[in-house]
Amino acid sequence: MTRHIEFARLHNFRDVGGYLTDEGLQVRWRRLYRSASLHLLSGDDLDRFDELGVRTVIDLRHPEEIDRRGRAPHGPSYHNLSVEHRFWNVRDDYSPDAGLARFFTDRYLEVSRDGWAELATALTVIADAGNAPVVVHCAAGKDRTGVLVALVLRLLGVPEEDVVTDYALTGLARSRMVAYWEETHPGEPLPWAGYGEAPAEAMRLFLAELGPVRDYCARTLRIDESVIAGLKSHLLKNPNI
After folding, report:
1. What is the mean pLDDT of each run of 10 residues along the chain (241 residues)?
2. Are 132 and 29 in contact (CB under 8 A)?
3. How far is the first Cα of the chain from the last one, in angstroms, to the nearest whole number?
4. Rounded Cα distance, 180 and 183, in Å
5. Which of 60, 91, 176, 181 falls 20 to 30 Å from 39 in CA-CA distance?
6. Model-level pTM?
7. Are residues 193 and 100 in contact, defined by beta-carbon separation less than 8 angstroms?
8. Which strand ranges, in their side-by-side order, compose the sheet holding 32-35?
């Protein structure tokens, strides 16, 4: 099966399936996808997207981003769950001495604290088998999407290092992100040094400082065992069958 699904305009569209859990089960392919913003879909890309049979879109962007850029094509069930309650302040919060990983980790921890209600709703939507296939996206499909997908994979029992690896795969799309920026902002420099970067250490630090994901989900997100059972029921399979 193919993890990276190519589109002409949409970058960073990936299948989250295939990873093995600590119990030897496998995340099902073609049930959960992660992506950059689906407003980029047009022309033949729309046909390619339709072929995936997506039933549900979870858009993690701010409503202001949606108003400015547009949203996913109509058809799939659509949920706008803005998990990021504070806009990034790169000028004040990013320190080159501390590094990119530290900056990203702090932003992800903010999302885990501020966006707890939206994260809980998103996990509940993903846990319902009737909603699959589901696409989760934000703007680049890296930060907000990375937090939510990391929670899903850890609840399924995927080892932390594989979760880190999945997050860091976004780095493969950086050249396309930069090209899109240059196309839409001719003559302008990139917004900041971390544009499109996905350092593995950022996700590693986030998971370490968040603590056990199951405890976080019970304590902060207030989701019960039925949600975790739902995730496992339709997103996991015996790899030998």
Report:
1. 90 96 98 96 94 97 95 91 93 91 97 98 98 97 98 98 97 88 89 91 98 98 97 96 76
2. no
3. 15
4. 5
5. 91
6. 0.96
7. yes
8. 14-15, 32-35, 134-137, 56-59, 77-80
